[in-house]
């Protein structure tokens, strides 16, 4: 074999190796990033000192177990959300969210961070299933407002859908949420949540 043929063979071999590596990388990415279903392990208040919340919005919610093999069955929630701030939840409030992730056995603090004005409107836009189950308010009423009250749930189904985020890495997360008005924080909550690969339609 002459030198030109050897060079072509070497280049072809390198090209094939590069293609294999690229396909493998795409396969790995597809396994950890894509359409998902979310489910919740627990919802709990922030630790003392984690925020200076006045706790004018608090909740005590228990979440049912989730069977990853039966994704069509919604989780259920029991408990209550107490909104005691006299203005209620409204669009003059802000919200801040932080997602700490655990993917492939590694924790990453602040994997995603978000800040929103108009906390009420943003809440019902980004978490329509949660909003509907927790507060049972007409989502078309404007301006958005959740009046002061105790909102109760008794073994009610809940859809943890986030329509503005249709694709996410699959893994475990801690969702840290604060809501406030001006300089005051009125809610501080953590949610342990998991995102799992969505089953194909018809899969049971």
Feature tags:
3 helices, Ganglioside M2 Activator Protein, Chain: A, 6-stranded antiparallel beta sheet, 3-stranded antiparallel beta sheet, alpha+beta, 2 domains, globular, 204 residues
- The counted number of beta strands is 11
Low-confidence stretches: 15-31
- Strand order across the biggest sheet? 6-5-10-11-1-9
State the helicity in percent bands: 10-25%
Q: What percent strand? A: over 45%
CATH third-tier fold name of the largest domain = Ganglioside M2 Activator Protein, Chain: A
Question: Main sheet, how many strands, which sense, barrel?
Answer: 6 strands, antiparallel
- What is the CATH architecture assignment of the largest domain? Distorted Sandwich
Oligomer: single chain
At the fourth level of CATH, the homologous superfamily of the largest domain is Ganglioside GM2 activator
Give the overall pLDDT as a whole number.
84
Query: Helix/strand-derived class?
Result: alpha+beta
The gross shape turns out to be globular
Element-level helix/strand string = HEEEEEEHHEEEEE
Alpha-carbon Rg, integer: 23 Å
CATH class of the largest domain: Mainly Beta
Counting H and I runs of at least 4 residues, what is the number of helices? 3
Number of domains: 2
